[in-house]
Write a structure and sequence with these properties.
- With 328 residues, the protein is of the alpha+beta class.
- The chain is 38% helix and 13% strand.
- The strands form two sheets. A six-stranded mixed β-sheet has the order 1-2-3-4-5-6.
Length: 328
């Protein structure tokens, strides 16, 4: 699957530019006419959305993108919010208003809950989110999302894994294949496999360095290499939250000019970094770290102590190792 150009994604800042992206990049056959003529509105009453939830909708309605081919299996909806939040609870209310059920106007069209694609935009299109409900029952359907914020440098995953799956199908008559292809845009399995592939590759490279240049036993080298990568992932998480000097590029910016006792290295991990980082700096990083590994990290952690190694039969086992290699 070809990777998309992130620069085109950065140009999406309004409904017309969104339509242009969907047409030019994802090959959606959207007619050339006024944007308002491409959609029709669902007001809050039709969706049975009330009170504060309805007030969060821009202009008090949701727009449906008109079908672009006969027997189109997907219902595509644009949900614009009045503020800077994507209201997940409101999306679930909208979902209930679009699926077939009792006490609903039978004259309105209806969809299966997992045949709906929501394109959500916050105020001024500062954040765009693609959303999809999946599961066997509407009441228990899980919401899967991916998206980006204006000015974000982190678009690689979107352009490589998510958005390419939403290209217009070569055979729109194949409804089953179309449903499966677009649902794959929200599938985290390919991303997870790629993460572990890169993680294992870097782990083996660092382990080999530690064995060669510090004469560590393979078990000790493995534990130290894994602990190092885990701490890098944790630091990347802090950076992504803006907690490293409020700089989103703190690690890449400071790593080349840092020393092993530099201020960006936490005191609690200084002894480990001196032991494992020193020889790499002396050799000018014979095994350069693949920083793309850390960009897969989207989770958090509860305490710093969860990152400390634990003894296990004479071998230090980092928490990530014990979690991922635990028997099911």
């Amino acid at each position: 699957m070809a990777r998309l150009d992130p620069e085109r994604l950065r140009g999406v800042h309004s409904f017309p530019s969104l339509l242009e992206y969907l047409t030019d990049v994802l090959d959606w056959p959207i007619d050339e006419c006024e944007p308002d003529d491409l959609t029709f509105e669902w007001d809050a009453d039709s969706l049975r959305v009330e009170g504060p939830q309805a007030e969060a909708l821009s202009h008090g309605h949701v727009r449906q993108l008109r079908s672009m081919t006969s027997n189109q299996p997907w219902g595509i909806f644009l949900v614009e919010f009045n503020d800077d939040r994507v209201h997940r609870g409101l999306l679930r209310e909208i979902l209930r208003g679009l699926v077939a059920r009792q006490r609903r106007d039978p004259n309105l069209p209806a969809w299966q809950h997992d045949n709906l694609l929501f394109i959500c935009a916050t105020q001024d299109y500062n954040r765009l989110t693609f959303a999809h409900f999946r599961g066997e029952k509407t009441q228990k359907a899980r919401l899967a999302t991916f998206g980006w914020q204006q000015g974000s440098p982190y678009l690689r995953t979107l352009c490589e894994f998510n958005l390419p799956a939403l290209r217009w199908p070569s055979d729109p008559a194949d409804s089953t294949g179309w449903l499966k292809a677009w649902a794959a845009a929200f599938d985290k399995e390919p991303l997870t496999r790629e993460f572990f592939k890169r993680f294992d590759k870097m782990l083996e490279a660092i382990k080999a360095d530690l064995e060669e240049y510090q004469s560590l036993h393979p078990a000790a080298a493995y534990s130290r290499a894994q602990l190092l990568l885990e701490r890098l992932l944790f630091l990347y998480f802090l950076q992504n939250r803006g907690w490293l000097n409020r700089q989103r590029d703190y690690l890449l910016k400071n790593f080349p000019s840092s020393t092993v006792t530099g201020p960006w290295i936490a005191a609690t991990t200084a002894s480990f970094w001196r032991g494992s980082f020193g020889p790499w700096r002396q050799r000018q990083a014979a095994t350069p770290i693949d920083w793309r590994v850390s960009r897969f990290s989207t989770g958090g952690c509860s305490t710093m102590t969860s990152l400390l190694p634990r003894p296990c039969g004479g071998r230090i086992i980092p928490p990530f190792a014990s979690a991922t290699r635990r028997s099911p």
